[in-house]
Amino acid sequence: MRKIAFVNEKGGSGKTTLTINVGAWLAMQGKKVLILDMDPQGHVGKSLGVDVHKVQKSVFDLLIYPDVRMEEAMLPTANKNLFIVPANKRLTDFVINVAHQPDRHIRLRNKVDTLEGFDYLLVDSPPSLGLLTVNILLAAQEVVIPVSLTYLALDGCAEIMDTVKVVRENFGHLDLRISLVVPTFFRDTILVQSILNKLTHHFGGGMSKTVIKFDMKLDQAQSFGKTIFEFDPASLGAKMMESVASEVMALG
Ligand SMILES: Nc1ncnc2c1ncn2[C@@H]1O[C@H](COP(=O)(O)OP(=O)(O)O)[C@@H](O)[C@H]1O
Ligand SMILES: [Mg+2]
After folding, report:
1. Three-state SS at 193
2. Would you call 246 exposed, middle or buried from its count of C-beta atoms within 10 A (0-12, 13-18, 19+)?
3. Contact 58, 87 (CB under 8 A)
4. Are 181 and 203 in contact (CB under 8 A)?
5. H helices within the chain, ranges in order?
6. Could you tell which of 219, 222, 224, 241 is best to mutate to test the pocket of ligand 1, judged by most ligand atoms within 8 Å of the CB?
7. Residue closest by Cα to atom 1 of ligand 1
8. Is 16 in the pocket of ligand 1 (CB under 6 A)?
9. What is the pLDDT along the chain (252 residues), one digit of tens a residue?
10. First to last CA, the chain
11. Domains of the chain, with CATH numbers?
């Protein structure tokens, strides 16, 4: 099973949009996919039409209670190969709840290690680099970084690289690697081109060939609780998501 985390401490960089649509496309290829939401905003569930405040169990229960199994927190979706573990606001209590627990960094990994029968685990991340993100990075093997092409985004990228390095070295998690950097919210301006050039210079072959442009359909799909492939399979958004998802698949 490939374990891929979509990480960027900046909100609005396209993490959730990529996570759900890459997951959906992989599921459409017959892969069995689990998307785990580690963001207290609960956007994975919300984007797929789930009322995340009413779910019986969420990722919070998974992280807090040792006897709660992965299967108990999973929900099916419109695609028979795609499952999610939703999150909601309760997840903000996680850090306080485990503050003194020696295993607080590997709560997620311990549960992920019990997962069977899936081809892909995709993890959506919160807009911060705290204990939740350390849990994500210790449970994952690959990191995909969506970068919205703004000037300050370059700072954010450096931060994530630092965090990945710290997790690799301090926790001895040498399997972890940044597998893809995906430029998002591309506009054809001189500033955006120069940011893209800087990123390409820095990440070289680690950059995705797909550049994600603005397509309102991607936002609309989420507001209807649908993936872009259900909402408008002929849209530019669907084509871009398919393109980046096939790059992710090819890396495996
Ligand atoms: N390529 C895109 N074109 C238009 N809107 C987008 C695109 N990607 C994401 N969005 C919208 O922008 C907002 C932020 O994206 P999101 O994926 O939620 O970012 P993050 O998870 O990093 O905070 C959402 O409302 C989403 O629907
Ligand atoms: Mg998000």
Report:
1. helix
2. middle
3. yes
4. yes
5. 15-28, 43-47, 59-64, 70-73, 94-97, 107-112, 131-139, 153-170, 190-203, 216-223, 228-231, 236-250
6. 219
7. 214
8. yes
9. 999 999 999 999 999 999 999 999 999 999 999 999 999 999 999 999 999 999 999 999 999 999 999 999 999 999 999 999 999 999 999 999 999 999 999 999 999 999 999 999 999 999 988 999 999 999 999 999 999 999 888 888 888 999 999 999 999 999 999 999 999 999 999 999 999 999 999 888 899 999 999 999 999 999 999 999 999 999 999 999 999 999 999 999
10. 10
11. 2-250 (3.40.50.300)
CA–centroid distance, residue 248 to ligand 1 (Å): 19
CA of 219 to the centre of ligand 1 (A): 6
How many angstroms separate the CA atoms of 20 and 232, rounded?
15
The predicted model scores a pTM of 0.97
Residue 204 CA to ligand 2 centre (angstroms): 26
Specify whether the CB–CB gap between 86 and 44 falls below 8 A: yes
